[in-house]
DoxX family protein
Amino acid sequence: MNKSVSTILRVVLGILFVAHAINKFQTGLPNISGWFQSLGLPGALGYVVAYTELIVGIALILGFMTRYVSAIVIVLMIGAIFTAKLSVGLLGNGQMAGYELDIAFALIALHLVFTETTPLSLDALFTRNREQ
């Protein structure tokens, strides 16, 4: 696939993850923690997910450790599907979104796991510096 398309996918996925993290912070991490508890998960996991989404998003935007960060995205999306979204179906139930977006995010991340380092990334900069 064209490296510029991969770059766009990486940056857009990063922006979307930052947006999701910001939404969690604006909603209030105690509220997110409570929602996680309502799903039968540890409340502290809400904090971990919010900060992970923020860090992952920034790393993707910058192109830093893209393959590893993309693997984390896949794990997050699988976790979201099986803990929160599976019961509401692919398209949701009118009160909650389904898991279609989670699948799309995971597939973009899977593409990035197997893509060569893209230009305009810290990964490319570090690779060039190592080769010199």
